[in-house]
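Continuing the batch. This is chain 6 of the set; chains 1 through 5 are on the previous pages. Same settings as before, nothing changed between runs. Recording input and output for traceability.
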Amino acid sequence: MASLADRVVPDQLLFYCRPGFEADVATEVAERVERLGWQGRAEFIEQGGFACFVVDDERPANELHRQLKFEQLVFARQSLVALAPMGLNRDDRMSPILAQVMTSGWSFESIWHETPDTNEGKALAGLIKALTRPLESALRKRGALRRKAGGRRLHLFWMDGDFVQLGMSFPGNRSELPGGIRRLRFPSAAPSRSTLKLEEAWHEFIPRDEWSVRLAEGMQAADLGAAPGGWTWQLVARGMHVFAIDNGPMKGDLMATGMVEHLREDGFVWEPPYRLDWLVCDIVDKPARVTAMVQRWLIRRWCREAVFNLKLPMKRRWEEVDRCLVLLGEALENAGIRTELRCRHLYHDREEVTVHVRLLD
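Output for chain 6:
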């Protein structure tokens, strides 16, 4: 390992994202960092699938990473402390990587090779496979890759075959999914692929060991904007009884289950006959209008938990999401309602984000 005087100190954070959302990650991170009292600049390449925040002051980026909680970020799929990216020689890609790792003084328990979520990134699979074992062997011999290193993980983010950036992640403040992507298999019986958005939301927001209690058979739910039934299908598959609210038709065999009551009504004005366990909503409308509707449900305690999507504008997407979340949070607080509130741009989302709210009282 390098001596303390010779070590390279990481001066930036690296975030993965859906290609096309680099500016949104950069804007969100820059605002959150400013609120924390740090100085720096956000950098990204359009359609690159990642963004960086370079710290200007002399504090190491590790400290900022601890303060910037991954679970609070909306548009980032992964959050890493990172070193400066490196250009590589095709004749010897390993030596510069080994040198930077050793100079950093980093130690870790595992190594993940990752690429942007692009066709160009997927084309690097062969190169990564060829480098994986030799690199692990070399780092293990040098003591950097070892059994007990606090759960730390080294990430090699390959932007192309000649360009890589090294990052470090830490348990409790990262995604545990390669590339930050949760890939789910589409259930063939579901009426639409939108079903995966609700399934991913449950994985993202509800601990797996709580599913039997919070997603239990016999619960009551409402699906606003239900047609053709992708989200209703998920609820029924968990054994819930569902009010499916939509003027459009429901597809598939959902109605034959006897667990769905399809009401051809406006989801924005419909009111449940009694308190439900779940509200889910994937209505295509302005984010502010959807947020206001869900706010009414929560303040009147018509449900215990809610998952809903906000369709994003073409520009200033982070600003719109932040505005909706702040207004919702303030309204619930002013009403004296304690909640858990999280928001994430999920892998199966497109031009939308998914919000989860749970009443704690």
